[in-house]
Amino acid sequence: MKNITENNRRNFLATTLKGAFVIGAGATIGGSLFNPVAALAQNADAALQAKIAMLGTASLETSKLALTKASNMEVKMFAKFEAAEQEVMGMILKDMGTMVPVPSAEGKALLTKLQSLSGQAFDKAFMQGQVDTHRKLKEAVSALMSSTSDKHVKHVTSLALTTIQEHTERGMMLLGKI
Predict the structure, then answer these.
(1) 3-class SS shares of the chain: helix, strand, coil, % to 5
(2) How far apart are CA 32 and CA 162, in angstroms?
(3) Which CATH number characterizes residue 21's domain?
(4) pTM, entire model
């Protein structure tokens, strides 16, 4: 029952976030046609969205790997929910016109490192990577929230920050258990 409730919650949030981002992006684009200052802000927003997408892609790829390599069931569950969430965020960013890139060099290095590990060493390195990535996501999403005047983007980033904080804390908790 808990998984059904969590999946329904995730589906609801995904649909809500996607709609809000698309509406917000449309309003931002429309506003930029009439206001050059808004166009500059949109470019800054696009750069931050690209950074968020790159971090999310790294999180997604490492989470997919953890689904097969993690030995701790709680780590596997974290990876399952993280992969699902990052897939939705990728769709949202794509709908906003953001290219969903490959992971950064740092993300690729983490993926390579994880591929060479197994057991508890894998679990620990994966969770540390998740905590580090979520901290960077928090910085990037906070910067996006501060840089935009679009109220829809502000609302969605506010919600995203809550989830990012939750994932950071859960990751730290799991690290403490491993």
Answers:
(1) 90, 0, 10
(2) 29
(3) 1.20.1260.10
(4) 0.74
